[in-house]
Design a protein that fits this description.
Blueprint lengths: L9 E2 L2 E2 L9 H10 L5 H8 L3 H14 L2 E3 L17 E3 L5 E7 L3 E7 L5 E8 L6 H18 L7 E8 L3 E2 L4 E2 L13 H13 L10 E5 H13 L5 E7 L3 E7 L2 E2 L34 H5 L1 H10 L7 H9 L3 H25 L3 E5 L5 H14 L2 H4 L3 E4 L6 H14 L2 H11 L2
Parallel strand pairs: 5-8, 8-11, 12-15, 15-16
Antiparallel strand pairs: 1-2, 3-4, 5-6, 6-7, 9-10, 12-13, 13-14
Zinc ion (ZN) binds next to loops.
């Protein structure tokens, strides 16, 4: 629901029906969840609904167990009269499962509906073992999380998955992923539901629960923007790990482009980069940004120089230890990424540019800043904050969980779900 004021108006000389009369139970829930209106009085004022109608709609939300009256001090009503009790989203009625899949590792989490991590696990696995095995492993990890936290599978209302590849979010399938061989077009939703059922019992109390799949950089951007930069209307995150990808959040919503391809900056060619002509990318081209400036590329250069490193996470450890060659190469990688980001920043004019992933750290950021400020117009960087990740390794699962909750409790979906619950 938009933030526009809702009142009685005239259109073409015909009295318009007050838009407020249409505010549904889903709209009221959204107002409470977003903090825009958290008392009966405030809901009446914002929607223009009568006290009785607000009461009827709230009763349905109470009966569903989705709203509760807060235990805190009553707040004074904007309409005057006696103070009203604060309404709260009741996050105890269900939980969400989320996973963040990387090329050699996966993190799984059980989250509340308000995004708190109840339990979390990390496990080593290889994404190139293919979807069948990997999704079965995730099902087993989810089963362990549910057992450890004493929750039954039927309390799970949805499953979110972050993957290191481009996703068609309409089908939940991955589209031609350069670093996920065997995953192209695979039915992730069906397999993951089956894996959870095999390891923990069918998720959800009645109907099959939604499984939402999205790109990892997208979900990290979504989580970070919501948690730490809620007022930033143009937010970009760049993840530099095995590959390189970006997520963009505009006005609080993920911007994916028309085919889910927005932000896939790892395959932009950087012909001027050292060794780029010979740098074969996982996508089959030479000289892609990911082939010269990713964690994998830096690891390969370190290995060639005799430093033991095979992956982005090895580079992360070397950087943490201040290894001089790793530091130098990370800064060089930062400069290459900064050159591409100059275009990104000029196009989007974001308020925050966040660097996340294995290479995120001072040397890489220094390199990014060197080239970015040199190449981008001052006007597009004047108010730009360049920062590192705040949620760290949790961002992917937090973003995947949030995506599921926003999907399930979106005003347009609430009516159908309330009807299914018989309230
Ligand atoms: Zn490429």
């Amino acid at each position: 629901m938009g933030g526009e004021s809702r009142g009685v108006g005239m259109r073409n000389g015909v009295p318009a029906r007050p838009a407020a009369a249409q505010a549904s139970a889903g709209d009221l829930l959204h107002l409470v969840r977003s903090g825009r209106a958290t008392t009966r009085g405030a809901l009446q004022q914002v929607t223009g609904l009568s006290r009785a109608t607000v009461g009827q709609r709230l009763d349905r939300l109470f009966r569903a167990g989705w709203l509760r009256e807060g235990a805190g001090t009553p707040v004074s009503s904007p309409l005057g009269g006696r103070p009203s009790v604060r309404l709260e989203f009741d996050d105890a009625h269900a939980v969400v499962l989320a996973a963040d899949l990387e090329t050699r590792h996966a993190r799984t989490a059980l989250l509340t509906l308000t995004g708190e991590i109840v339990a979390e696990r990390g496990t080593a696995l290889r994404v190139d073992e293919g979807p069948e095995r990997v999704l079965d492993r995730l099902g087993a990890e989810f089963g362990e999380l549910l057992r450890a936290s004493g929750r039954a599978a039927d309390t799970v209302c949805g499953i979110g998955l972050a993957v290191p590849g481009p996703v068609d979010t309409g089908t939940g399938r991955i589209v031609q992923p350069p670093i996920m061989p065997g995953w192209d077009g695979y039915d992730i939703r069906g397999r993951l539901r089956r894996a959870v059922a095999e390891h923990a019992g069918p998720a959800g109390a009645t109907a099959p629960v939604p499984v939402l799949v999205d790109n990892d950089a997208n979900l990290m951007a979504y989580a970070e923007q919501r948690a730490h930069y809620p007022d930033c209307s143009a937010f970009a995150l760049v993840k530099v790990s095995t590959g390189i990808g970006a997520g963009v959040v505009v006005d609080g919503s993920l911007y994916r482009g028309i085919d889910g391809g927005a932000g896939d900056i790892g395959h932009i060619r950087v012909p001027g980069a050292p060794g780029s002509a010979a740098a074969l990318c996982k996508c089959g081209s030479y000289g892609c940004l990911a082939a010269v400036a990713s964690g994998r590329a830096v690891a390969a250069r370190l290995a060639a120089a005799g430093v033991p490193a095979a992956s982005g996470s090895d580079v992360r450890e070397l950087l943490a230890a201040g290894h001089p060659e790793a530091v130098g190469l990370a800064r060089e990688a930062g400069r290459l990424v900064g050159e591409v980001l100059a275009t990104v920043v000029t196009l989007l004019n974001p308020g925050v540019l966040m660097i996340a992933g294995d290479l995120a750290g001072t040397p890489f950021l220094t390199g990014v800043r060197e080239l970015l400020y040199q190449r981008a117009l001052p006007r597009s960087t004047a108010h730009l904050e360049i920062v590192t990740s705040r949620l760290g390794g949790h961002a992917g699962v937090v973003g995947a969980g949030a995506l599921v909750v926003e999907h399930l409790y979106a005003p347009e979906r609430v009516e159908e779900r309330l009807a299914a619950l018989g309230v």
